[in-house]
Design a protein that fits this description.
The protein is mainly β and 294 residues long. It has no helices and 27 strands. The protein is globular, with a radius of gyration of 19 Å. The two termini are 15 Å apart.
Length: 294
């Protein structure tokens, strides 16, 4: 889906072992999707694209067709295109938990920041600027009005914003390379993890005024994605899932109670770096630049 002209959407499975249903969202020939998000409350698929285009595709009230053998045929879904920027690509996005209709969109170096966009009115409500490069990662706090954006190689930092007072960043979280991954800890919402191509994951307590990270982990390669799945029991501790790029192209699971003990899992299912992770207490999915899903 990163550069394909058609996004393929797998719907949620109704029961274990059920066959996946398939819908297709056809894009224009000059539109390339860069990032995806599902807005559960509105049941809308969001796709950020090159040339400043945001695609919104309603997934409810879908009709299904069946082929000659009774199998469900692919359904064409028609997206609505919204021009959110003149030329900047929409590289990243995140939903704002406290504002159901708002989404943060990370744009290219022309803006050097992000837009907070209202899906109901199809208009921007705030601009979060301060980066010297494109924004490749975004994360929103579940309990406070914080949005954190990660800048590219000409920036090498993450910026923390209060969306209610967006004129200037609250603080800067430095790295020595492009910041490609950001994730808040669901068990401690003021704790943020940032991953960079400088081969480090840093942990920040955003309530503390200190400029230095609370924790720094050196990894074998640049970091491309982070995920902190919500575990079934708080007594289980927390697991940080990290993907690193060449030459390892691995996914690590790290116990945050003993982060320097090394990964508890070292999985290598892809031939390229993992660009996106999603999971829960029981399973994890990874999407790689090599075009595979595990």
């Amino acid at each position: 889906v990163r550069y394909g002209l058609t996004m393929r959407v797998l719907s949620r499975l109704a029961r274990p072992g059920a066959a996946a249903s398939m819908e297709r969202v056809a894009l224009a020939d000059d539109v390339h999707a860069r990032c995806l998000a599902h807005h559960a409350a509105m049941d809308v698929l969001l796709a950020g694209c090159k040339r400043g285009v945001l695609l919104t595709t309603p997934l409810s009230n879908r009709s299904s067709t069946r082929g000659d053998r009774g199998r469900r045929s692919p359904v064409e879904l028609v997206p609505t295109a919204v021009q959110v920027a003149d030329r900047d690509a929409v590289n990243s996005m995140c939903l704002l938990p406290g504002a159901p209709s708002l989404v943060a969109l990370g744009l290219g170096r022309q803006l050097g920041g992000s837009l907070v966009f209202d899906l109901e009115t199809a208009s921007p409500v705030a601009t979060l600027t301060g980066h010297a490069d494109s924004v490749f990662a975004l994360a929103a706090c579940a309990q406070r009005p914080w949005v954190v954006s990660g800048g590219g190689q000409d920036d090498n930092s993450a910026l923390v914003f209060d969306v209610n007072s967006p004129d200037a960043a609250l603080r800067t979280l430095p790295h020595r390379g492009s910041v490609r991954a950001l994730a808040f800890d669901p068990a401690a919402p003021s704790v943020l993890y940032s991953g960079s191509l400088d081969k480090y994951v840093r942990c920040w307590d955003l309530r503390a005024p200190a400029r230095e990270p609370a924790l720094e982990l050196a990894l074998a390669a640049g970091v491309h994605a982070l995920e902190l799945p919500i575990l079934s029991s708080s007594g289980d501790g927390q697991t940080l899932v990290v993907s690193v790029g060449r030459p390892h192209n691995a996914v690590y699971a790290i116990d945050t109670r003993a982060p320097h003990a090394g990964p508890t899992v070292n999985a290598r299912y892809h031939s390229s770096a993992v660009s996106s992770l999603a999971g829960n207490a029981f399973s994890l999915a990874s999407v790689s630049y090599d075009g595979t899903v595990a």
